[in-house]
Automatic annotation (TrEMBL):
<dbReference type="Pfam" id="PF10517">
    <property type="entry name" value="DM13"/>
</dbReference>
<keyword id="KW-0677">Repeat</keyword>
<protein>
    <recommendedName>
        <fullName>DM13 domain-containing protein</fullName>
    </recommendedName>
</protein>
<dbReference type="InterPro" id="IPR052126">
    <property type="entry name" value="Spindle_Org/Thrombomodulin"/>
</dbReference>
<feature type="domain" description="DM13">
    <location>
        <begin position="30"/>
        <end position="142"/>
    </location>
</feature>
<dbReference type="InterPro" id="IPR019545">
    <property type="entry name" value="DM13_domain"/>
</dbReference>
Length: 170
């Protein structure tokens, strides 16, 4: 027992998943980025942590489509039932999540997987039209054992509880 010390809570995180496997990653070979309709193309996908992916050199003629989302999931079919919309870091927040509607040319994006999804839960990453449940282009993300450790996702540390924000329409 220590006398004269106080304990404060820095952060609390609910953990309801198995401990992540220590190694992963997607094969990094030329041509293994996103490719598809409407000029969709990217460099290979890079894992930053268990919930965060980097998509470098991404292009997409979004103005020609009804809507477009980064969408991740598992299963043979890519549709609204097998995947979830990922957030674009710096653009989207849980209360403000909007489709890509403007043309994108050779831009770098960081995306965060939805809810409880981790890289161990997904088999593909798609650019997906939610309105018509159509896959514009995807990459299959089979994990291969690698020598790189995948750091866990650590949520943002706040000094106070998040404030409730109004929903912003896109």
């Amino acid at each position: 027992m220590l006398i004269g010390f106080s304990v404060e809570t820095l952060s609390a995180v609910s953990i309801d998943k198995e401990v992540p496997k220590p190694y992963c990653c997607f094969e990094k070979e030329p041509g293994l980025g996103l490719h598809g309709e409407y000029g969709i193309a990217s460099d290979p996908i890079e894992v930053l942590d268990s919930k965060t992916l980097s998509i470098a050199g991404f292009s997409y003629k979004a103005s020609r489509t009804p809507d477009g989302w980064f969408f991740a999931g598992q299963g043979d079919q890519i549709d609204q039932m097998t995947g979830k919309k990922a957030l674009i870091v710096g653009k989207d927040e849980p209360h403000k999540h909007c489709a890509m509607k403007e043309d994108i040319s050779n831009q770098d994006f960081i995306i965060r997987l939805a809810g409880n999804q981790t890289i161990y839960d997904i088999e593909w990453l798609s650019v997906f039209c939610y309105r018509f449940s159509h896959d514009f282009g995807h990459i299959e993300l089979g994990l291969v054992e690698d020598e790189y450790l995948v750091p866990p996702f650590i949520p943002e540390v706040r000094e106070s509880a998040p404030q409730r924000k109004n929903v912003v329409l896109c």
